[in-house]
TrEMBL record:
Family indicated by similarity: Belongs to the autoinducer-2 exporter (AI-2E) (TC 2.A.86) family.
Protein name: AI-2E family transporter
InterPro entries per record: AI-2E-like
Pfam families according to UniProt: AI-2E_transport
Organism: Candidatus Thalassospirochaeta sargassi
Keyword match Transmembrane: yes
Membrane topology according to the record: Multi-pass membrane protein
Lineage: Bacteria, Pseudomonadati, Spirochaetota, Spirochaetia, Spirochaetales
Family annotation (PANTHER family): AI-2 TRANSPORT PROTEIN TQSA, TRANSMEMBRANE PROTEIN
GO BP: transmembrane transport
Length: 352
């Protein structure tokens, strides 16, 4: 019995390692598919709502896709214009950064007798680095555009076929197993769809808050930072740290040596993160996924390692799907319990 259990565990570990390796190797194929699945989860409530009011399913799917594409087009249009301005102004920011580092280095040398170079960043070729970054970004944009075509087409087919998947599962599996699979599928679509919809709304509100506050302060390219806030809000914990670091550094470069605007940028960014992270997001999401913070951090690093930065954006939904599956498969329920938020579990369960 012990040998059989050890063999089962060994086979399970080998299967997990093989799956992770396959996902990493086939990232160019798997990423668009995973994005399409998550996008179909997000749009499924919209499509189902339209079909309930007698709108044909094909038209409902078309409307949902057009809404997403329209929002993306408008944001991209404004963002492209702002990015062009940012590229034009980049040399000015670089020279300002040089001046600031020179002033700070000079002050440290004078006041503390530190032997620091006049310009510690002089050895770095920022121009070449910036050009290489732009070239890399251009290549990524082309790859992203082609991948998005695959994502949209896959999403359309998934939404078209979703009403018939349950019938197919019922015919393909024994009655009890088929019923359990359908329950897991419905629960997954409902939970992940609601999570992504609320996350999209909260991220949009975060982007608007950041854009509005920075616009009032007078910070350049506030729209870019607002869009960046919207994007990074999909990465729990780490995204907010990156956003605060980037905006505060850019605000410091723009407004130095004026303390007022710099403090205003710092206070506004911290305020947005406190309001969104501690009040808005928890109230709107509730206990929908109930994932442990440790599991979330681990999933961010794991999927970031497998699929790079893009993997971090979809780490939480994928981890939530795994948890939902474990919850509905009796032998895997202990794993689901280990993935739960311990603070919330302790409130609802009594321990001896």
């Amino acid at each position: 019995m012990n040998n059989q259990r050890a063999n089962t565990i060994f086979i399970g570990v080998i299967a997990i390692v093989a799956t992770v390796a396959a996902l990493k190797i086939a990232s160019s194929v798997m990423l668009p598919i995973f994005f399409a699945i998550l996008l179909s989860f997000t749009l499924s409530p919209v499509v189902d709502g339209l079909t309930r009011i007698k709108v044909p399913r094909g038209i409902s799917i078309t409307l949902a896709i057009l809404i997403i594409a329209g929002i993306g087009y408008l944001v991209g249009l404004f963002l492209f214009s702002s990015l062009n301005s940012f590229i034009d102004e980049a040399p000015k920011y670089y020279h300002r950064f040089e001046d600031i580092t020179s002033q700070i280095s000079g002050a440290l040398n004078t006041n503390f007798a530190m032997e620091l170079p006049e310009n510690p960043m002089a050895e770095i070729d920022f121009t070449a680095t910036f050009i290489n970054s732009i070239n890399s970004l251009s290549q990524n944009v082309v790859s992203f555009a082609s991948a998005m075509v695959i994502v949209i087409l896959s999403t359309i087919f998934l939404l078209l076929e979703s009403p018939y998947i349950q019938v197919t599962i019922a015919k393909a599996f024994p009655r009890k197993a088929g019923k359990r699979i359908i329950i897991i599928m419905r629960h997954t679509i409902r939970q992940i769809g609601r999570y992504l919809s609320v996350k999209f709304l909260v991220s949009a509100m975060t982007g608007v808050f950041v854009w509005l506050f920075l616009e009032i302060i007078g910070m350049d390219f506030s729209l870019i930072w607002g869009v960046l806030a919207f994007i990074l809000n999909f990465i729990p914990n780490i995204g907010s740290v990156i956003l605060m670091a980037v905006t505060i550094i850019m605000g410091f470069i723009q407004f130095f040596p004026q303390p007022g605007p710099i403090v205003a940028v710092v206070v506004s960014m911290i305020s947005v993160q406190i309001v969104v992270g501690n009040f808005l997001d928890p109230r709107m999401q509730g206990r929908r996924l109930n994932l442990s913070p440790i599991i979330i951090i681990f999933s961010l690093f794991l999927w970031g390692w497998i699929w790079g930065p893009v993997g971090m954006f979809i780490a939480v939904p994928i981890t939530a799907v795994i948890k939902i599956i474990c919850e509905n498969v009796p032998p895997l329920k202990p794993i689901a319990m280990l993935m739960e938020n311990g603070r919330k579990v302790s409130k609802n369960r009594r321990f001896i």
